[in-house]
Every structure is written in structure tokens, then in C-alpha cells.
Specification:
6 strands
């Protein structure tokens, strides 16, 4: 299995990785919409870059709208292709990422406790 990041930015425990995410540098926005944010993040320590996607589904009640975050480490070549591409090319670039690569997910469902967990791959999920 290919190793990405360092203990500071990509620890083995999902909850610790979610906490570490808040310390990553924000490099580039690909999409900056109220309910969809796609950006490139980087570790200050090791330089590892991560693609991050946040989606939100609005239900127009109570303001506790469900949100989902997913982050995946990317290689320098993948990061370059993401930066060089257009917004339309973003979906194509996402499809080119390894679907088996470990990704960090963080779900904040309406009325429930948020959870962080490991999965594979990355995609843009349903959003408003």
C-alpha cells in the first residue's frame, strides 16, 4: 500500500486525521459555493497535498443541515492536473484518482453526532 502524508497530517485513526485536517494550509479553491466546496489543502510539515470536498444538503428546517466532507491525498502529478484543469475538467480529474486509495470521510447528519471514518476513493455526493 502506498504511504501518503505524515503522522501529523494523515494519522492512522480517522478522528485524529479529521482533527489534523483543520491545521492543513488551504492552497486552491476549485469550487467555492455555499453547498459545495472543493479545494486543495497541504501539510505544512511534509508538503502532502489533499483534495477536499464538502457538500451540504439544505432541508429548510431548523438550520441543522446535513454536511459531508471527504479528503484524499493526491500525488504531485494529480495536484498539478487538478490545478491546471477547468471546473468541467474537475470531474474528469476526480475520475482519474485511485478508487482504492484510502480517503477520510466526516459525516455531520441532521440531529446526530458527527462521525469520521476511513473509506476508499472520492466523489462529489448529493448537494444543493
Amino acid at each position: 500500500m502506498e504511504r501518503f502524508g505524515c503522522e501529523r497530517c494523515w494519522p492512522d485513526i480517522a478522528e485524529a486525521a479529521w482533527d489534523a485536517r483543520s491545521h492543513l494550509n488551504r492552497l486552491e479553491f476549485y469550487v467555492d459555493d455555499t453547498h459545495l466546496i472543493v479545494r486543495l489543502l497541504a501539510c505544512e510539515g511534509c508538503g502532502q497535498k489533499f483534495l477536499s470536498i464538502m457538500t451540504e444538503t439544505i432541508d429548510w428546517a431548523d438550520g441543522d443541515d446535513p454536511q459531508h466532507w471527504v479528503s484524499i491525498p493526491v500525488t504531485p502529478d494529480e495536484a498539478f492536473k487538478l490545478v491546471a484543469g477547468s471546473e468541467d475538467g474537475l470531474h474528469q480529474a476526480l475520475g482519474g484518482l485511485d478508487h482504492e486509495r484510502r480517503s477520510l470521510h466526516h459525516d455531520a447528519p441532521k440531529g446526530s453526532v458527527a462521525t469520521s471514518y476511513w473509506a476508499s476513493g472520492i466523489s462529489i455526493v448529493r448537494h444543493d
